[in-house]
Every structure is written in structure tokens, then in C-alpha cells.
Design goal:
Nitrilase/N-carbamoyl-D-aminoacid amidohydrolase; 5 helices; 17 strands
Length: 275
């Protein structure tokens, strides 16, 4: 199998949905023109409001709505797979939609949906920052693995990154590439973003493509940025820093296969039960 290029889209989303979609469209088309076959948008790419609950205003029915139409249309136009960051999809609780990451293939067909499992209910140490995502979102329950032309694609979102058992589960299902849409806070990102991404790549011997929000958002919230592509040995192949933009790198499925044969750490596991 030949090498392929994958891309992470870094954004500074605000409250204006139309403006955010324009920026996302421009970045996706630029990534496709540069040869990317897969692009990942960040968490909350369509809207970063002043409050977590602001997502309710753009909540869509499953399979119906302008945000889903946007993702399908852009994937089909670019002939490129897209992991659509997160958008709010209705749940059984009208005040707590799911934070859903949708995967579209190069024909614009939706081939996967992942609902964020771990919700960000924390008080950031040594700061006044506090978040209670569970008040405005319903958690998912199931990991997602999707077959692509370049290997098995796993999807997780932001705070999920801190729970290695989720990724072990996906590795046991054959994950080759891990997509992480995120909106890490500046403080937690500065401390943990890079080591967490590199750890997930190393321990699961997989490529990681992480798309992040960056900069200052409504109400002064700051996100860390530093979107990146990491190889299975933990090397950073490409990275964005503070500004919105595109971070892309070439990955080699044949190299991944050889590495797993030469360094079969996944076959050496002695404790394999994950509840």
C-alpha cells in the first residue's frame, strides 16, 4: 500500500456559525488540494459559545441538519474522508445533546458516529477554571472503529485522551490510525497535550492525528492549539502551534505493519480484559 497524506485542521471558532463553516470549508479544500485523503476538524468546529450550553442552539436530529449536510458535501466535493470534529446531536435529554464526531468517506457517505464518552467535569488546578460538561451533554457508551482504504480508523474526543483503556479497546479491534478532535484548555494542554498524544501513539503502535482549537474564544476561554500528527514510534511528524491552519503529514501503512511485526508489543500483552 502506498503512503498517504492526512491533515489536522486547527481553528479558532467563535459564536458565528456561518463564519466558522466558511473557515472550515476553506481549510478542508486547501488540505484536499494539497493531497490529503483524510482531514480531521477540531471539537466544536461549528461553534464555540460563551457557555457549554450554547451548543443546544445548533443541535441537530441524527442524519438531518445543515452541519451534517456541510460535512457530507465537503467530503464528496473534495473526494476526501472527513472526521467532522464534534457537533451536537439530539439525545433522549433535550437539554443534553451528544457531542458527536461523524466520519464521512470520500463519496460523502456517513460511515461512522462516535459520541464522546468522557465528559469534562473538572476544576483546573491552580486556576479559577471550572467545567461541567455533563450539565449540557449526554455521554456516549461505545468506541468507534471504521475501516478505511489505509487501515482501521479510531475516533475519540478531547478529554477521552486521558483514559488509555478506551484506546486499548480500539487497538484490540485493529486500530491503525487514531483521530482526536479536541479543544484542550491552554493550561491542561501546556502540561499534558503532547505527552498524552505521543503516549497513545506509542502504546498502541498507531498513527495519531489530533485537530485542536486554538487561541481565545468567547467569554475569554483559551485553548492550546498544537494540532499534530504523531507516528507509531511517538515522533511528531507535523505540528501547528498557535494560529489556525493546517497540519499535515505523510503516513505509511506498510511501515506500520513492519513495525508491528518487528516490535510486537500488542501481542505481548498479558492482561487483555477491558471492562
Amino acid at each position: 500500500m502506498t503512503t498517504v497524506k492526512i491533515a489536522a485542521i486547527q481553528m479558532n471558532s467563535g459564536e458565528d456559525v456561518a463564519a466558522n463553516l466558511t473557515r472550515a470549508r476553506r481549510a478542508l479544500r486547501s488540505a484536499a488540494a494539497d493531497g490529503a485523503v483524510l482531514a480531521v476538524l477540531p471539537e466544536n468546529f461549528a461553534r464555540m459559545g460563551k457557555r457549554e450550553s450554547d451548543r443546544i442552539a445548533i443541535t441537530e436530529e441524527n442524519n438531518v441538519g445543515p452541519l451534517q449536510d456541510f460535512l457530507a458535501a465537503e467530503a464528496a466535493r473534495a473526494k476526501m474522508w472527513i472526521v467532522g470534529g464534534t457537533i451536537p446531536l439530539k439525545s433522549d435529554d433535550p437539554k443534553r445533546p451528544c457531542a458527536s464526531s461523524l466520519v464521512y468517506d470520500a463519496d460523502g457517505k456517513r460511515v461512522g458516529r462516535y459520541d464522546k464518552i468522557h465528559l469534562f467535569d473538572v476544576r483546573v488546578p491552580e486556576s479559577e477554571e471550572a467545567y461541567r460538561e455533563s450539565q449540557s451533554a449526554t455521554p456516549g457508551t461505545k468506541p468507534l472503529i471504521v475501516e478505511t482504504p489505509w487501515g482501521m480508523l479510531g475516533v475519540a474526543v478531547c478529554y477521552d485522551l486521558r483514559f488509555p483503556e478506551l484506546f486499548r479497546r480500539m487497538a484490540s479491534q485493529g486500530m491503525d490510525i487514531l483521530a482526536i478532535p479536541a479543544a484542550f484548555t491552554y493550561r491542561t494542554g501546556l502540561a499534558h497535550w503532547e505527552p498524552l498524544l505521543r503516549a497513545r501513539a506509542i502504546e498502541n503502535l498507531c498513527y495519531v492525528v489530533a485537530a485542536a482549537q486554538t487561541g481565545t474564544h468567547p467569554a475569554g476561554r483559551q485553548t492550546y492549539g498544537h494540532s499534530m500528527v504523531v507516528d507509531p514510534w511517538g515522533a511528531i511528524l507535523a505540528q501547528s502551534i498557535g494560529r489556525p491552519g493546517i497540519c499535515s503529514a505523510t503516513i505509511d501503512p506498510a511501515h506500520l505493519k513492519r513495525l508491528r511485526q518487528q516490535f510486537p508489543v500488542l501481542d505481548h500483552r498479558r492482561i487483555k480484559t477491558v471492562s
